[in-house]
Design a protein that fits this description.
With 458 residues, the protein is α/β, with parallel strands linked by helices. The protein is 37% helix and 11% strand. The chain has a single domain, classed as Alpha-Beta Barrel (TIM Barrel). Strand 3, helix 7 and strand 4 form a beta-alpha-beta unit. Bound molecules: beta-D-glucopyranose (BGC). Beta-D-glucopyranose binds next to loops.
Length: 458
């Protein structure tokens, strides 16, 4: 996920206006601080056989709804409403992963991964407030069971960006989703049900995927539901609500299954200061985006998940230029490729929080599969360097198994190591899939993956 540039242009103009003559750093969200009290450094990593190799996916980006209006279990999410309003591209049936999960499973088995992160669509499970779809609950439990039976450790994510439509109040966006009056109560019931159903087969739970990025995009950038611009007050309320809900979920997970591991999953790009960022406003806002959520939940996590895709100097010029950037150092969306940023991010997370880490997402949108191999290999090399330097990184999850629905980019962005055959639904591997399989087989500790030179110029 990535913020688009246009609202920032507005933000920039407003900032120039507000800051003319002002020399202080501008930080509308307040000082970031040093973070939590430093904790004792974690023990040297014991990786070897235990390194997790996985793919990450999400329900909304992969599943077909498989219900029609008027049917008892019909559900909608806030994204469906946004799409109906023409604010984001419609997703249709995506990769049919609800009715054809076997196709994902088949591809996963062939890939050699040891772990698989998928998410549960809350709206499918609870199509109306307090009304549960028992078949859906059993369906998600069956996914976890089938993975486990195939020797693949499920990593169950309880929320990946989408809310049931009944939490989305179009007329009152400020009381929607995280800020809906009933959200926490409903969330806790949903979490308990899903953890109880999946616990027999599941060791890893990620309560939320990138709540930090979603909250920034929803309340400051205005691009995602509920679509609010520069709503700094709502940003903080959403951080409070989501971290409270994360902590509730972590407590329930541990109560239901004390041996389970709670994984945070946050969007952690590497930010640099840009020359034309007046008062450092954009930089400060972005750094807030990295830590505001994690600062409040890291202590209830066993593993901190880093979703890392790019680095950026978030000034107005670079943001405006993004769609026009092409070449070996950029993805097809203009994101800056910077494996060293991942190394630095690992360092920063380790120093700030002192906990074991996993790279819970990393990947590239490109039509050039050689470039994908180059991208992944160099990011693996950065992880290997971090591990050799003593940082406790325990896994790498590629985004993603197959080309999928990429939020406001629709189906244009090709992140998959395979793509779906539209007739058979088979996930047909790209060369990068075979390459990844060889890496998994041959380099279980990542440490020996070398970095390589760019091979292509997209
Ligand atoms: C999100 C995914 C998304 C990926 C690529 C992450 O921010 O968790 O849903 O597809 O980035 O943009």
């Amino acid at each position: 996920m990535k913020f688009s540039f246009s609202p920032w242009a507005g933000l920039f103009c407003a900032t120039v206006f507000l800051t003319s003559g002002c020399v202080n750093l501008i930080d509308p969200l307040g000082p970031i601080g040093k973070g939590p009290e430093p904790r004792p450094p974690v023990a040297k990593p014991q990786l070897k056989e235990k390194f997790a190799w996985g793919f990450s996916t999400s329900s909304y980006q992969y599943e077909d709804p498989a219900v029609k209006p008027g049917e008892a279990d019909y559900f909608q999410t806030d994204w469906d409403i946004f799409a109906d309003e023409g604010k984001v591209p419609p997703k249709g049936n995506a990769l049919y992963s609800w009715t054809h999960f076997d196709k994902d499973l088949e591809a996963l088995k062939k890939s050699g991964v040891t772990h698989y992160r998928f998410s549960i669509e809350w709206a499918r499970v609870e199509p109306k407030p307090g009304v549960y779809n028992e078949a859906a609950i059993r369906g998600y439990a069956a996914m976890a069971r089938k993975l486990k039976e195939a020797g693949i450790e499920p990593v169950v994510c309880l929320w990946h960006f989408t809310f049931p439509a009944w939490l989305y109040d179009k007329k009152n966006p400020g009381q929607s989703n995280w800020l809906h009056p009933t959200v926490r109560e409903r969330w806790n019931v949903y979490v308990e049900k899903m953890v109880k159903a999946t616990a027999p087969y599941t060791k890893y739970y990620a309560p939320q995927n990138e709540p930090n990025g979603q909250i920034t995009t929803a309340y400051l950038v205005g691009q995602w539901p509920p679509g609010m611009d520069l709503a700094f007050g709502h940003y903080w309320k959403a951080i409070d609500a989501s971290t409270g809900m994360f902590r509730d979920a972590a407590a329930r997970i541990k109560k239901i299954k004390p041996s389970a591991l709670v994984v945070s999953v946050e969007a952690l790009p590497w930010w640099e200061r840009a020359p034309l960022d007046p008062g450092g406003l954009i930089y400060n806002t972005m750094i807030h985006g990295n830590v505001d959520h994690l600062d409040r939940i890291y202590d209830v996590c066993d593993i901190l998940g880093i979703n890392y895709y790019y680095s950026q100097a978030p000034g107005p010029l670079s943001l405006l230029a993004e769609p026009y950037r092409h070449g070996p150092n950029f993805t097809m969306m203009g994101w800056t490729i910077n494996p060293d940023g991942l190394y630095k991010e690992i360092q920063r997370v380790a120093k700030r929080y002192g906990k074991p880490m996993m790279i819970t997402e990393n990947g590239i949108a490109t039509k050039d599969d050689k470039k994908r191999i180059w991208y992944i290999q160099n990011h693996l090399a950065a992880i290997g360097r971090a591990i050799r330097d003593g940082y406790d990184v325990r896994g790498y999850f590629s985004w993603s198994l197959a080309d999928n629905y990429e939020w406001h980019y629709g189906y244009e962005a090709k992140f998959g190591l395979s793509h779906m055959n539209p007739e058979t639904y088979v996930r047909e591997p790209k060369p990068s899939m075979g390459w990844f399989k060889d890496i998994i087989r041959g380099h279980r500790t990542v440490g020996s993956v070398p970095s390589i030179q760019p091979s292509t110029d997209e």
